What does this fold into?
Amino acid sequence: MTDFRKLLSALVLTLSLVACGEDEVHEGDDHDHDPVVELNEEACEHLVEGPFAAVSAVTEATQAAPAVAPDHRTYTVALPEAETDGYAGYVRVDSAEAADYLFFADVSVNITVTDAEGAEVEIEESATSIDECTQVKGRHVVELGVGRYFLHLSGDSETVNLLVEEMHDDHGDH
Amino acid sequence: MKHRLLASLGSAILLAACATGPGSGWGEITGEISTGFEPPAERLTDDGRLKTDNSYRIRIDTLEVELGDVQLLASEGAVAAADDVEFDPADPPPGYSNCHAGHCHAEDGSLPTYEEIRQRLSGADSVTERTLVTLPTPELKIGSRQVVSVDESHCEPSCLIDDMVTIDTAALPVGHLHLTGVVESIVDSENFPEAVGFEVEVHIDTSLRETLALSFDPDSLPVAELGGHFSLTPRLLDGIDWPTAMTGATLSEEALEQIRENFLESEWHVDVRWKEAIEE
It folds into this structure.
């Protein structure tokens, strides 16, 4: 790179700035959003508007359990009749990364989670409502690692609309 | 207008200066290109096997990915403002569906990226691309990052940019993927009772593209330092139902297509830093 070129480039750049004034581009302006609120709002939207996918839960935690996923779809889960009262069945989640998963339901439903080897996974948080809308009757937070997990859903309803969300540090990457 | 006149004056003088001898130009490319397959700890068992999302454990014995040289491309013709095109992956336009992880499924069976779809929607198909520079890509290896420094001996035809031009894409061509290993299930002992060896050949046959805005002009600093990195996704073998997918030691067409789709979730990213001069 010649000194002559550098000098000319600097000259043109300086004069250009004088001629144009400040013309800064502000990229990546940081808009702070509460990821939990965002996820709740998203759940409200999807539980009402879909898109919906119908699946039928099974009575045992096997490979036949239908998959539900954090793919912005509401799964309408048909539950088989339970041996005792109500309805109960299994669906599965194939988790691609270690993260907190949120399960939103539009009816009151009990959820237990087991990993691929049958060990129960602790539910970190459970709530029967959220501030963002009235459609959510159940919200459960579970930390999952990489692998297959089974969700056991049980309650008085024959069908449950279920939405799965995955909590990222930078939620918004859809 | 005043700005244009000054820029034109500067351009005219600089062109004259550049024409005076070799080694000068509007700018220069430097930096490094790296590749790697480095799954995070959550994806590995204690003995180094890859965990899949459906609870298989896979020992990868060999992994070869055919990567071409990185191509720095400049668009020519009427470039449409693809960024202005409305495109919502949650509500894809006609001809596209199932948009996720940066790409959609097109009716013709291809998997265009969101950027490619925006380009198509903007009517920019008529724009032609010219390869200005090619940069070497290091061989991909398991568990470690391989790096090649970009300097004059590696650029083709040259690291010097003689034109006043905008490089808008860094393309990384990908050919085939060859993989051998052993798979074992921890969840499906009934259908998959023991560890099984496999060998697959997957034709990826596409170019991963990263959008750049690398303008060499009188307003730019003379040296563009690139940091290009290709990271093979740890999700490569996710979603395969191995008991039904295995046909002998290889996999069904459906499973190979799943691997190809997973591969396209790999990260190809290029950082750009403008500098006054190359640091020795």
Observations:
- Residues 1-23 of chain B have pLDDT under 50 and may be disordered.
- Residues 2-18 of chain B form the longest helix (17 residues).
- The first strand of chain B starts at residue 27 and ends at 36.
